[in-house]
Amino acid sequence: MDNDELSRTVKVVRSWLMEARDNVLRQIDSRLKVATKSSRSDLVTNIDRSNEQFIVNKIREFDSKAKILGEEGFGDQVTNSDGRVWIVDPIDGTMNFVKQRNHFAMMISLYINGDGVLGFIMDVMNNELLYGGPDFGVFLNSNQMTKANNLKLKDGLIGLSGPMVIHNDFNMQEIANTSLGMRVYGSAGIDMIAVLKGELVGYISYLKPWDFGAGRILAETIGLKITTIDGHQLGVLSSEPVLLATENAHHDILTIVKK
Ligand code: IPD
Ligand code: CA
Ligand code: CA
Ligand code: CA
Q1: Lowest CB count within 10 Å: 2, 12, 140, 175, which one?
Q2: Ligand 1: which of 39, 72, 92 to mutate, judged by most atoms within 8 Å of the beta carbon?
Q3: Residue 77 maps to which CATH number?
Q4: pLDDT, position 55
Q5: Structural domain of 191
Q6: Per DSSP, what are the bridge partners of residue 132?
Q7: Binding residue per annotation — 89?
């Protein structure tokens, strides 16, 4: 994509997210229609759905030939990463949204033939938007972000998934113990923003393509490492236990995982 097209795309996606944010805020005090999916903690609301429908409509108007992978099913059946693929998580951290009306995100990313081009994560209640990609740089609202500080695991806080800590998957308790402390925020988007801003040295969770699609592009652009929990490359469409961290913390965590 040339620079003009990148700038144009960033501008238009930012405007969708701003409008989507206004739509969510307008309904924030309304009674939500909440349904469960795979389990009692796997929720979807009328706003997850209307937000995805809104974003998918915008993408279709802007980029009619692209494929769209949306968590709530308003996009296409995407079976491979050929061509232009947009990935949408309309509300990330639905449980937080339902129980706290806070600490949730909206995420959009664009991949072309499997390469990450642009990622967008919006922390709705803090009005923080992180966006960009390898040929654009990474911005927090209007400020360009610099390369991530390469802290070790023992020198920082780590964001973890609650269930992984409870079940001690992949030696998670030793990872938490080695760090300065663990945090469980309950939204991959909010956790990834914290890693991108240097508030956390890393984040580990089981994730789906819409949970890590945007964060992966932003993270790699500012020199963070994102792989499967055992250090392998992530597929665009795969669901995996994901490890995002500074290069040093990534190395420290892999050593503990492989013990
Ligand atoms: C979930 C959140 C959660 C993470 C789960 C995700 P959702 O996304 O990001 O923090 O641990 O794996 O599925 O369903 O609220 O969009
Ligand atoms: Ca969900
Ligand atoms: Ca999600
Ligand atoms: Ca979601």
Answers
A1: 2
A2: 92
A3: 3.30.540.10
A4: 98
A5: 153-257
A6: 119, 138
A7: yes
Q: 148 pLDDT band (50/70/90 cuts)?
A: confident
70-85 residue pLDDT tens: 999 999 999 999 999 9
d(CA 48, CA 40): 17
For the chain, the domain total comes to: 2
72 lines ligand 1 (CB under 6 A): no
Ligand 2 centroid vs 256 CA: distance in angstroms? 29
> Does one domain contain both 53 and 138?
yes
11, 138: one domain: yes
DSSP 122-173: EETTTTEEEEEETTTEEEETTEEP-PPP---GGGSEEEE-HHHHHTTGGGHH
Is residue 50 lining ligand 1, measured as CB closer than 6 Å? no
- Which ipTM did the prediction report? 0.98
My answer on whether 32 and 122 are in the same domain is yes
* 1 CA → ligand 1 middle, Å: 31
Dump pLDDT digits (tens) for 82-112: 999 999 999 999 999 999 999 999 999 999 9
155 marked as part of a ligand binding site: no
